[in-house]
Specification:
By secondary structure, this protein is α/β, with parallel strands linked by helices. It has a single domain, classed as 3-Layer(aba) Sandwich (Rossmann fold). It is 49% helix and 14% strand. The protein contains 10 helices and 7 strands. Strands 3-2-1-4-5-6-7 form a 7-stranded parallel sheet, sandwiched between helices. Helix 1 packs across helix 8 and helix 3 runs parallel beside helix 4. The longest helix has 28 residues.
């Protein structure tokens, strides 16, 4: 079998594009996944001829199978999986379209689960690997005004922690990367660019990518980039949940 690839979902913009560049720069062969083929191809042209481009929409239930089939057709396997794709939507739960919210669950949680399940057997067979699941500081509390998004990221964090422990005997590193508000397209798609959270506290995406890759290399179960984000996560341990719910509601206004 050929040398392994680093598979990155949501690679057409934001953190995903930066992950792709960082992994290619360190010598990885990368496989890029996203919906927008033109953006992926432009990035692939930048990264080199060995780059694999896979155009799939992770809101489709069968997308994970199609992705792995494309990897197998290239006669390789996934040595590193970076589950980066995800999106959010701001608004009251009952006012947001249920189709959009179930798509969010599919992309943010179910596709993450499917891809992990598909790549782990090959990693075990080849003697190891690594998985980086992009969660969020949203995973540590409930999120009124973005109920499903926060819940989906809590799922990713919990799944990642469990897999971290299960896969230790197989030499497979699993890390949950939990950034706070970050300056990417996510804020605009989620209608959050003008919220207090993003206007005052958004961090730089390059720092998030660097922290994630370094944490994965050290097999840290959880990585929270940035001092303020770390402080917030730690404060959640002693702050009543009723208070954190109100704080989140204020920050999203």
């Amino acid at each position: 079998m050929a040398n392994p690839v680093t598979l990155i979902t949501g690679a057409s913009s934001g953190l995903g594009r930066l992950f792709a560049r960082a992994c290619a720069a360190r010598g990885d062969r990368v496989a890029l996944v996203a919906r927008r083929k033109n953006r992926l191809q432009k990035l692939a042209d930048e990264l080199g001829p060995d780059t694999i481009v896979i155009t799939e929409d992770l809101s489709d239930y069968d997308a994970a199978d199609a992705i792995i089939e494309a990897i197998e057709d290239a006669e390789t396997y996934v040595g590193t999986l970076i589950n980066n794709a995800g999106f959010g939507a701001r608004g009251e739960f009952q006012k947001l379209a249920i189709g959009d919210q179930t798509d969010m669950l599919q992309v943010n949680a179910i596709a993450v689960t499917q891809l992990c399940h598909r790549v782990i057997p090959a990693m075990i067979a080849m003697g190891g690997g690594s998985i980086l699941n992009v969660a969020s500081t949203a995973a540590f509390q409930a999120g009124p005004g973005m109920a499903v998004y926060y819940a989906s990221k809590a799922y990713v964090l919990s799944l990642s922690e469990a897999l971290h422990e299960e896969l230790l005997p197989h030499n497979i590193a699993v890390t949950a990367l939990c950034p706070g508000a970050t300056k990417t397209e996510f804020a605009y798609r989620a209608d959050m660019a003008e919220t207090t959270l993003f206007e005052k506290f958004a961090g730089e995406p390059e720092a998030v990518v660097k922290a994630g890759l370094e944490g994965l290399a050290k097999n840290k179960a959880i990585v929270v980039p940035g001092f303020l984000n770390k402080a917030m996560v730690q404060s959640n341990r002693v702050t009543p949940r009723s208070v954190t719910r109100e704080l989140v509601k204020l920050l999203q206004q």
